[in-house]
Amino acid sequence: MAYIKYCLRVMIACMKKEIRTALTERVALFQTTILPINYNLLLILFVLSGSNAPTAVVMQDSGYYAQQFYSAMAHSYSFSLRQTSASEANTLMAQGEIVAIVTIPPDFDSRLPKTSLSR
Fold this sequence. Notes:
This protein is α/β, with parallel strands linked by helices and 119 residues long.
Protein backbone atom coordinates (compact mmCIF):
# COMPACT_ATOMS: atom_id res chain seq x y z
CA MET A 1 0.00 0.00 0.00
CA ALA A 2 2.87 2.34 0.77
CA TYR A 3 4.27 1.69 -2.72
CA ILE A 4 0.97 2.74 -4.33
CA LYS A 5 0.89 5.96 -2.30
CA TYR A 6 4.48 6.67 -3.31
CA CYS A 7 3.66 6.11 -7.01
CA LEU A 8 0.62 8.38 -6.78
CA ARG A 9 2.71 11.15 -5.13
CA VAL A 10 5.29 10.88 -7.91
CA MET A 11 2.59 11.02 -10.62
CA ILE A 12 0.91 14.03 -9.02
CA ALA A 13 4.25 15.83 -8.67
CA CYS A 14 5.06 15.17 -12.33
CA MET A 15 1.59 16.33 -13.37
CA LYS A 16 1.96 19.59 -11.39
CA LYS A 17 5.38 20.20 -12.93
CA GLU A 18 4.06 19.65 -16.47
CA ILE A 19 1.09 21.94 -15.92
CA ARG A 20 3.34 24.66 -14.44
CA THR A 21 5.75 24.32 -17.39
CA ALA A 22 2.92 24.46 -19.94
CA LEU A 23 1.48 27.60 -18.37
CA THR A 24 4.81 29.43 -18.15
CA GLU A 25 6.34 28.38 -21.47
CA ARG A 26 3.74 29.48 -24.02
CA VAL A 27 5.85 28.43 -27.03
CA ALA A 28 6.03 24.86 -25.78
CA LEU A 29 2.27 24.82 -25.21
CA PHE A 30 1.70 26.22 -28.69
CA GLN A 31 3.96 23.61 -30.28
CA THR A 32 2.49 20.67 -28.42
CA THR A 33 -1.05 21.60 -29.48
CA ILE A 34 -0.65 23.09 -32.97
CA LEU A 35 1.94 20.74 -34.48
CA PRO A 36 -0.13 17.54 -34.12
CA ILE A 37 -3.17 19.32 -35.57
CA ASN A 38 -1.09 20.60 -38.48
CA TYR A 39 0.37 17.15 -39.07
CA ASN A 40 -3.08 15.56 -39.17
CA LEU A 41 -4.38 18.19 -41.59
CA LEU A 42 -1.45 17.53 -43.93
CA LEU A 43 -2.11 13.78 -43.81
CA ILE A 44 -5.77 14.35 -44.63
CA LEU A 45 -4.82 16.52 -47.61
CA PHE A 46 -2.41 13.89 -48.91
CA VAL A 47 -5.02 11.16 -48.57
CA LEU A 48 -7.71 13.19 -50.33
CA SER A 49 -5.47 14.28 -53.17
CA GLY A 50 -4.05 10.78 -53.70
CA SER A 51 -7.35 8.98 -53.94
CA ASN A 52 -8.85 8.08 -57.29
CA ALA A 53 -5.63 8.52 -59.23
CA PRO A 54 -6.42 8.27 -62.96
CA THR A 55 -4.76 5.03 -64.04
CA ALA A 56 -4.65 3.19 -67.35
CA VAL A 57 -4.77 -0.61 -67.24
CA VAL A 58 -3.47 -2.60 -70.18
CA MET A 59 -5.17 -6.00 -69.91
CA GLN A 60 -3.14 -8.57 -71.84
CA ASP A 61 -4.62 -11.51 -69.93
CA SER A 62 -8.32 -12.26 -69.53
CA GLY A 63 -7.92 -15.09 -67.01
CA TYR A 64 -9.69 -15.45 -63.69
CA TYR A 65 -6.89 -14.01 -61.53
CA ALA A 66 -6.23 -11.15 -63.93
CA GLN A 67 -9.91 -10.21 -63.70
CA GLN A 68 -9.83 -10.51 -59.90
CA PHE A 69 -6.75 -8.29 -59.75
CA TYR A 70 -8.45 -5.67 -61.91
CA SER A 71 -11.59 -5.88 -59.78
CA ALA A 72 -9.59 -5.43 -56.58
CA MET A 73 -7.92 -2.34 -57.99
CA ALA A 74 -11.26 -0.93 -59.16
CA HIS A 75 -12.81 -1.32 -55.71
CA SER A 76 -9.85 0.02 -53.70
CA TYR A 77 -10.87 3.72 -53.68
CA SER A 78 -7.31 4.54 -54.80
CA PHE A 79 -7.62 4.37 -58.57
CA SER A 80 -9.87 5.65 -61.29
CA LEU A 81 -9.26 2.91 -63.83
CA ARG A 82 -9.46 3.12 -67.59
CA GLN A 83 -8.88 -0.03 -69.66
CA THR A 84 -6.82 0.86 -72.72
CA SER A 85 -4.28 -0.48 -75.18
CA ALA A 86 -0.57 0.10 -74.55
CA SER A 87 -0.29 2.80 -77.23
CA GLU A 88 -3.37 4.63 -75.99
CA ALA A 89 -2.03 4.46 -72.41
CA ASN A 90 1.25 6.03 -73.51
CA THR A 91 -0.66 8.78 -75.32
CA LEU A 92 -2.79 9.48 -72.25
CA MET A 93 0.34 9.61 -70.09
CA ALA A 94 2.02 12.06 -72.48
CA GLN A 95 -1.10 14.26 -72.43
CA GLY A 96 -1.10 14.23 -68.62
CA GLU A 97 -4.54 12.64 -68.33
CA ILE A 98 -3.33 9.68 -66.25
CA VAL A 99 -0.67 9.28 -63.57
CA ALA A 100 0.10 5.57 -63.92
CA ILE A 101 0.01 2.67 -66.33
CA VAL A 102 -0.55 -0.86 -65.02
CA THR A 103 0.12 -3.65 -67.48
CA ILE A 104 -1.26 -7.10 -66.70
CA PRO A 105 0.96 -9.42 -68.77
CA PRO A 106 -0.44 -12.18 -70.99
CA ASP A 107 0.88 -14.92 -68.69
CA PHE A 108 -0.43 -13.36 -65.46
CA ASP A 109 -2.59 -16.33 -64.44
CA SER A 110 -0.04 -18.97 -65.42
CA ARG A 111 2.77 -17.31 -63.43
CA LEU A 112 0.88 -17.52 -60.14
CA PRO A 113 1.57 -20.63 -58.06
CA LYS A 114 -1.55 -22.77 -58.18
CA THR A 115 -0.87 -24.45 -54.81
CA SER A 116 -1.40 -21.30 -52.76
CA LEU A 117 -4.46 -20.03 -54.60
CA SER A 118 -8.01 -21.26 -54.41
CA ARG A 119 -11.05 -20.04 -56.26
